[in-house]
Predict the 3D structure of the following.
Amino acid sequence: MSAVALRLLRRIPSALLIVAITSIALPSWAVPPSARAFESRLWAPCCYEGTLDIHESDLARTLRHEIEARIEKGESEPSIQADLVARYGEKVIAARSAGPSERMGLIIAAFIVSAGVVLALSFRRRVRKTAIIGETPSAPGARADDELERRLDAELAELDG
């Protein structure tokens, strides 16, 4: 066997150990995305200062595990929500659904893209107009400023002279 093959064989056990530790230490990767989204729409009932998906109290952790297990068993989100409301009251609901916030995000994104397109087109039009005329665009009154500057230079020269 070559030296390269022996080195690779020696690294296999350590690679397997890293994979095993990672799979044990990071169980949150196994959380269904629907559970995360549902948890983000509920307040942690211990203090109502953070949503279940990010709150780090014992009660929030317990409820996250309960919700994830119930969703994995196939229970619907409305029935889980009804149970939590019965246990903790209406105050536990942070957002009624994901719909309005998603739509608002899309509206804002569309507005930003539209504004960017309008600005790009107006800039392009201005550049083309300037190229056709053959001179740089000047501010209104620039010629008057040049005249005032010549008069001021003449008066200063008179005073020095």
Notes: Helices lie at 3-25, 33-39, 58-72, 77-88, 99-133, 142-160. The two ends are 98 Å apart (CA to CA).
